[in-house]
Amino acid sequence: MKIKNSEEEYDKNDRFSDDTKLYVDIMEKVVKDNEWKKPIRELWEVCSDSMEWVYPDFGTEAFLSQIYKQSIEHFDIPREVQVLVDANNNLFMSVGTPGFVSFANQDDELYGSEEPMKLPIKCWIHTHPNMSAYFSGTDWATIDTWKGNLDSAIVLGQGEMWAYDCKTEIGKHVSFIKTNSGRYSVTEGEE
After folding, report:
1. What does the pLDDT look like over 157-177, one tens digit per residue?
2. Residues 155, 133: contact at Cβ < 8 Å?
3. Helix spans in 33-152 (H)
4. Whose CA is closest to 54, among 162, 127, 163?
5. How far apart are CA 16 and CA 22, in angstroms?
6. Would you say 121 and 163 are in contact if contact means Cβ atoms under 8 Å apart?
7. What is the average per-residue pLDDT within 118-130?
8. Could you give all domains of the chain from N- to C-terminal order, each with its CATH number?
C-alpha cells in the first residue's frame, strides 16, 4: 500500500474522484457542521488542566477517546479529524476525508477565533478512523516541519494510540482490549 503524501494524491484515489462535485458538496456540508466539536470542547473544559500527552492518564485517555468517537460516529462516514492544543491551552479542530485531514477551507478555525493560535503547539492529535494507530509518511513530514514548535503528537486508531514526544523522540504505543471482566475462562476440552 502506498502512503498518501498529500490531499491531492488522496483525492485521485478517493471513492469520490469519479464525481468531484459530489465530493466537494459533501465536504462543504461536513466542514460547516461544527456540532462534532462540542463534546470535545466540553470534555476539554473539565480535564484540560491535567493533560499528560506522552504518558496519558485517565483524563487524557477520556479526552482522546471522545476525539476518536466523533471521528467515527458523527459524520456521514468515518473521517479523520485533528485537534491542536496551543501554548494557551486553546483547541483548534478540523475534519477531513477518511484518509487525510488539514485546515484547508477551515482557516476560520485558525484565524477567526478570538484568540489566535500561540506557538508552541503542546499537542497535535489526529485520527485514523477504523485503522491502526500509526504515523504515516505525511504525519512524519508534518512532525518534521513543525519541529521546535510542536511538543508532542498523538495518532488515534481503532483500539489503540501512539503518543510521541518531539523533543526526546520517544513514543508510547497503547492498545486497548476488552476482556471478559478480567476473568480467564476455560472452554470445554481445554482442561
Report:
1. 999 999 999 999 999 998 877
2. yes
3. 37-47, 58-73, 107-111, 137-145
4. 163
5. 7
6. no
7. 96
8. 17-175 (3.40.140)
